[in-house]
Automatic annotation (TrEMBL):
Residues 44-91 form the Type IV secretion system coupling protein TraD DNA-binding domain. This is DUF853 family protein. It holds the Pfam family TrwB_AAD_bind. InterPro entries: P-loop_NTPase, T4SS_component, T4SS_TraD_DNA-bd.
Length: 243
């Protein structure tokens, strides 16, 4: 009963207890990575060398996965190590919390998202085939029965969309590609960006032109013709055909 009472008491006050321990850890720099305490009040910490290994954190909602990641990031910030944080769900709340944590330690943060100045377009570069493979790998397709057939059609259509975007000299992005998966939108896009060539026909026109007759003599230093009023030149009407 005493053990059960201690357990329930700790569970009830664990948030306040952990906050105090966290503040103490922040004020006293250490090479270890403070993780927290178990339900039985056992301290959990990792050695710095253990971060050289891959780690998988599993658990249901509210079991502390995000808190664990935040502890690892804070330890890296304390030790002045660089951090790359990628949130697969893209939650704005997580990004802002990570940014606030970095700013507490005086670290500059660069956020890549559709809401910030810095953005990352994973399909901007690469051949149409490479881009298609990237996008197709994001989904799970059945390879049995009709699944293989429709997967092949989807793959070829997606590559066609990317080629169309490139030929139209439009920047590739997920939004444009998603829009063009609709056939009507693709037809409208094709009409909008197709090259319309103007055909010019050769037309033969006959015009009349006045041409002076006679060859002018070359001038010299002794030539005084410039001081004498010139006589009217003889002209002829010449017909020309202009194409």
């Amino acid at each position: 009963q005493k053990a059960e009472h201690r357990y329930k008491t700790f569970r009830k006050n664990r948030v306040k207890f952990l906050n105090n321990k966290q503040q103490h850890y922040r004020k006293k720099p250490s090479q270890e990575i403070f993780v927290g305490y178990t339900d039985f009040k056992e301290r959990v910490a990792l050695e710095a060398r253990e971060l050289n290994y891959h780690m998988l954190s599993t658990g249901g909602t509210g079991t502390g996965k995000t808190t664990l990641i935040a502890s690892l990031m804070e330890a890296a910030l304390q030790q002045d190590k660089p951090i790359i944080f990628a949130d697969g769900k893209g939650e704005r709340k997580s990004m802002l919390e990570f940014k606030a944590l970095c700013e507490v330690y005086g670290r500059k943060v660069y956020l890549f998202s559709e809401m910030d100045n810095l953005t990352y377009n994973p399909i901007k570069n690469g051949t149409p085939t490479e881009t298609r493979d990237k996008l197709m790998s994001l989904f799970s397709f059945s390879s049995e029965g009709d699944g293989a057939y429709y997967t092949d059609i989807a793959s070829r259509y997606l590559q066609l969309v990317v080629k169309l975007i490139d030929e139209a000299q439009v920047t590739r992005d997920i939004k444009t590609i998603a829009k063009l998966t609709n056939v009507d939108s693709m037809n409208d896009f094709f009409k909008e960006h197709s090259i319309q060539e103007e055909i010019e026909e050769d037309i033969e026109v006959e015009v009349e032109e006045e041409v002076a007759v006679g060859k002018a003599s070359a001038s010299s230093d002794d030539d005084l013709s410039g001081f004498v009023a010139p006589s009217e030149p003889k002209v002829e009407i010449v017909k020309k055909k202009i194409v």
